[in-house]
Amino acid sequence: MSAHPYARAYMAGVAVPTMFLLVILAGFVVLRLILQIPAPIERIIVFPMAVVPNAFGLWNMLYVKLRESREISIGALGALLPFVLAPLGGLVACSLGFLHLTPGGLEYFEAVHVNYGVLAAGFCVVTVTYYLAWKYLVGFFNGVVGIE
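Now predict its structure.
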C-alpha cells in the first residue's frame, strides 16, 4: 500500500492527540460546568485543540519524508515537537495577553504563577511523554496505516 503516504501519515499522527483531547475536554466539562470553577479554562483549551492534532499530523508527515533519506527514530523526532509547540504557544499567549513574563516566573491570566524551575521540570516531563507517545502510539498507528 504505497498510495498517499503523506495523507496516511497525517491521519496516523492526528489520531493520538485527538484521543487525549477528548479526555481533556471531558475534564474541562467537569471542572467548568459541574464544579463551577470560575477560571477562564476555555481560553486555555483552545490552543491545544486547534494546533496540537494538526502539529502531530504534520510532524508525522515530516517523519515519513525524513525517513526516506536517513534512519531516524520516531521517538526522538517526536521528543523535538515540544520545542516547537511550547514557544509557539507562549508567543500566542503573550500576544493575546494571557501570559506575562515576570522575574520570578510566568503569570497566566493574572491568577496562576509558575516559577521557572517548575516550568523547566514540567517541560522535561512533557518531552519524555512526547517521546513515549511517538515511539509507541504514533508508531503503532503508522504500522496500522502501513507506512512504518
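The first strand starts at residue 99 and ends at 102.
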